[in-house]
Amino acid sequence: MAVSSSCNPQLLLSHKFPETTYTYTERDVAVYALGVGACGRNAVDTDELKYAYHENGQQFIKVLPTFSALFSLESLPDGVDLPGLTFDPRLLLHGQQYIEVHKPLPSKATIQNKVSLAGLHDKGKAVILEIETRSYEKESGELLSMNRATVFLRGAGGFSDPSQPFTYSNYPANQASAMKIPESVPFAVFEDCTQSSQALLYRLSGDYNPLHSDPMFAKLAGFSRPILHGLCTLGFAVRAIIKCICKGDPDMIKNISGRFLLHVYPGETLVTEMWLKGLRVIYQVKAKERNRAVLLGYVHLHRLASSL
Ligand SMILES: CCCCCCC[C@@H](O)CC(=O)SCCNC(=O)CCNC(=O)[C@H](O)C(C)(C)COP(=O)(O)OP(=O)(O)OC[C@H]1O[C@@H](n2cnc3c(N)ncnc32)[C@H](O)[C@@H]1OP(=O)(O)O
């Protein structure tokens, strides 16, 4: 049954999101790492075993910088159920993700999330919502990360005058991920297979959207079968960059931006192409079997690996 949509921008923009608290442990960190394919090709990969196991104890395991994107979801206990907005939840897609890494994440922590609406755009065929989450370590009060998640609500647009469509954002335009792929040959290319059960494993990190697990729900959303979480694809891409460009050091990552161009089916092979421009890595991920680009973005580094 079709769900009618509506959007009241004044009501939405005046909404005050409650602060939320989220505790994760080393187990969550390891389950996440496996969900984004760490050690998927080689269980003793020296670059990646550290995300799932440490010989001196789990308190020493490393956390992938994309783990903090989970805070976006955890900070919204009711999902995108917001005053002033109705839409068909089956038509929601993740459009973009921007992550600022302020400190490497500890292997376990309690996080306090402060959430706000950073953007709202009427695209006619869709509404775009940008939700910003600042995540602080409860114990020290230090800012660990900032995430800006963009959700693309198909069928929910058209609430404003088409000659002057409503648009609002509260951050600098240079943090948006629109960019061009260089014409040169990539600096590095990394190929990785997702498993047909990849989304079933990834969802255990907290995104239980049935779009990724329920065949009937996926069909009603317009897909032949359940699709992969966008943040899972992003996790594969950033892992590839850490491996090929950061020589296995996740702490080199300063910020990450990605736009989801097309859905990925679990089981597809992801090919990440990387171009190094100073301290910026421009990357593109293709689904090899369809030869289609599925994700495009950039990663800023603190420094370059000495062995590059
Ligand atoms: C707080 C945490 C919340 C997170 C919740 C996440 C929950 C998850 O469980 C959900 C998921 O993981 S879904 C899976 C991952 N995402 C996807 O697979 C989407 C892939 N992308 C698409 O299908 C299309 O790009 C599509 C459909 C997105 C757009 O394609 P088109 O309809 O063809 O759009 P187009 O005509 O090209 O552009 C229209 C305007 O929209 C802008 N735009 C396009 N793609 C965008 C994208 N991916 N993100 C943001 N904006 C986007 C365009 O710029 C255009 O605007 P303008 O006219 O102003 O240029």
Task: Provide the fold topology.
Blueprint: E1 6-7, H1 9-13, E2 20-24, H2 26-35, H3 70-74, E3 85-86, E4 92-101, E5 109-122, E6 126-137, E7 143-154, E8 167-169, E9 188-193, H4 198-202, H5 215-220, H6 230-244, E10 253-260, E11 269-277, E12 280-287, E13 292-301
Antiparallel strand pairs: 1-3, 2-5, 4-7, 4-10, 5-6, 5-8, 6-7, 9-11, 10-13, 11-12, 12-13
The protein binds 3R-hydroxydecanoyl-coenzyme A.
Organism: Herrania umbratica
Domain Peroxisomal multifunctional enzyme type 2-like N-terminal: 22-155
GO molecular function, one term: 17-beta-hydroxysteroid dehydrogenase (NAD+) activity
- State the CATH class: Alpha Beta
Instruction: Identify the overall geometry.
Output: globular
The total of helices stands at 6
Class by alpha and beta content: alpha+beta
Classified in CATH, the superfamily is Hotdog Thioesterase
Major β-sheet profile: 11 strands, antiparallel
SSE succession = EHEHHEEEEEEEHHHEEEE
Rg on CA atoms, Å: 19 Å
Helix content: 10-25%
Overall number of strands: 13
Head-to-tail CA distance between termini = 55 Å
CATH hierarchy: architecture: Roll
| CATH-defined fold name | Thiol Ester Dehydrase, Chain A
Which blocks of ≥5 consecutive residues have pLDDT under 50? none
Q: Any idea how many domains?
A: 1
What binds here, in terms of ligands, is: 3R-hydroxydecanoyl-coenzyme A
Average pLDDT, rounded to a whole number, is: 95
DSSP strand (E) fraction? 25-35%
Organism: Herrania umbratica
InterPro entries: HotDog_dom_sf, MaoC-like_dom, MFE-2_N
GO biological process, one term: fatty acid beta-oxidation
Domain Peroxisomal multifunctional enzyme type 2-like N-terminal: 22-155
